[in-house]
Amino acid sequence: MNKRYIVQLIFNVFSSKRYFFKYLYFFVLVLLMSVTQTLAQVNLRGFEIATTPSWVKKYPKPKLEDNYKLDLVLIQSDEQYNHITKESFSHYYYYLNNIDGLNKIKSFFWKYEPSYQVCKVNVVNIHRGDRIIPMNTQLHTEFELYGKQIGGNRYDEDAKIKVFFEGVSVGDIIEIAYTIEGIQPDIYGKLERIHYSYQQKFRGKDIVRIVYSNDQPLFYRTLNYDVESKISIGSTYSSIEFESSNNKELNFPEVPQWYSTNRKIYFFESDSWEDYIKLNLKNFKLEEVPSKKVKDKVQELTKSITTKPDKINAILNYSQKDIHYLDYGLINPKRPETVLTQGFGDCKSKSLLTIKMLECLGIESWPLIVKYNGFDKRLLDVYSGQTFDHCVLEFVFNGDTLIYDPTNVPQKGGLNDKFTKDFKYGLRIKKEEKEITKLKHHSDNSLNVFVSMDTKDDGWGKYYVNWKIDFGGQIANLKNDLYVEGGVNSVFESISKELLGYTYITSSDYNLSFSFEKERPNSILNIKSKENSYIFDDNSDGATVFLPRPLYSWFKIPKPEDLGEYFTLPKVIKTNQTFKIPLTEWIDFTSDSSNFENDWIKYKKKTWIEDDTIYASYSAETYKTFLDSSSYQDVVETIDHLKKDMTILLEKNIHSETATNRRYMFYILRASLLVLVIFTVWLIIRFRKKRRALIHKLRSDITRLEKEIEDLSI
């Protein structure tokens, strides 16, 4: 149906009533067919069964080993990517070792981006002994489309294809392969891929292969394992492949979040950060001036504010509190006007809006691409966007460059109170930038604790304990947010586990209250015990001691067998803690003080007696958030020294005269109470016996008198 015929048809419909209903019926029929076809395409999108692409290299079927310990075993994986055609091929063999393994793979699914990718199922076979049972013609698949809308407008979408395996049995091998075609439309097309090795469930071969044009450079970097590359060079294209194997369970050490222990291979074709910076400059369009809508919003937020710092702070608070976070699939940020209208944005979109709003105040700022948990310095020369996963911004004020994360929970306080994670390194999206930048980390996390013990000692060392915990910095922001969501019990539960080191107490044991200032990053949790309890400990020598729990439990490091190349130090940067203990007669205490400092911690302690009360004051500040494993033994010795120094000795010798007399009195009192109870029981029993004898005698006398009266009357 060409355009000329359509025009003539429309003319006939409107010029002849005779053919009106005929053509109307025809139009409706065509429309219904078109809609039906469109719906069918939408519903079936991704269900296409297609042959394996010709460029894919075929590898032999894996052989089974003996005595698999896993229920469901991945015995071979080969992942191949053609950078020329932008096709990604994935091929897996799973062995169903037992009934639990069978239940774990009732279905298999993968995700892709339907806006710019097409997915094709290539192979689904069941290998049963020497038989191969193809499933393609009877394949049960389901397609799920996940769309995000804001105000009825499309925001983003994802798709999932699920393949079901009916008729499989224990001992079968399931083979599945699929291809995803297409890449994000907002990138240059540079090769940037990561291959992850399936370490935990993998017992067999792991293969990765990249096909690329001969006129394109290719670089790679392996992480956490050594594997040799095999390069094949053709007339127009080449390929590189890696093959590794694993037949045992791997143990992963405890390491900082930024330090990855997973096996990875990074593939990239850039030899500097300039390409990635240019790509982001293209997508962010920082040269565009703020729109009228953005300017009007800035005017609305700052019209009653006189100082520039407060104006900046108003914009920062707005982007954190009023623009809600919503993930978005593309690296191209949404425009500031769209984010303002919708009230939603991902990290890139929220950062760009904040940058344009600050520009209205004459504040220089730019996007900063980072790794959320911290950039691994082993990847400093891996020139790929795959090494990052987050976007924040930097702005300049009074000659200082400050980092701001608009996706954080709303933060109170001024400009210097804004907290970000320790990103370590970041890539500044600026025209003159060419290298990645080592970043300064600002943290004002603080914890102040004041503990008082009521002098209601009953002679056995039991006290009513009151805690006052003052939070500062991002800890306060997080606890305030937790309080708003779950109340004071939620705050208490998190504190009792994280800081107090008590896992056996519950909120019902205490009277709790929580307060915070609305515009400041601080808050106070008050904990008052309802019943007295024994709060002291006995050391290995039998002496009675007191351990300052929040500080004592703060020092946690991995066990030697879990040690990795790096390990994490405490998250609380600064802490001041004071304890008040009533001085009773059984306590034998000597005051002292100490100081300690090395390259990662500064510590100070002072104890004294005043008004029949023992005071113990501690302060500590850490200079680093992690150390390498070569410092582990030094840290162990430092922590042992500090824990001994923190311990307050209340009773030097459990066999001292005071302690002995106190225990003798305890035993005498217990014996006296026992004698009193026995004597009381004896008196009651004796009284009851005499009462029963007296009643029996009275009844006998009454019977005798009745008989005598009866005889007299006769």
Automatic annotation (TrEMBL):
Residues 298-398 form the Transglutaminase-like domain. Keywords: Membrane, Transmembrane, Transmembrane helix. The chain crosses the membrane at residues 664-685. This is Uncharacterized protein DUF3857. Pfam families: DUF3857, Transglut_core. Residues 86-246 form the DUF3857 domain. The keyword rRNA-binding does not apply.
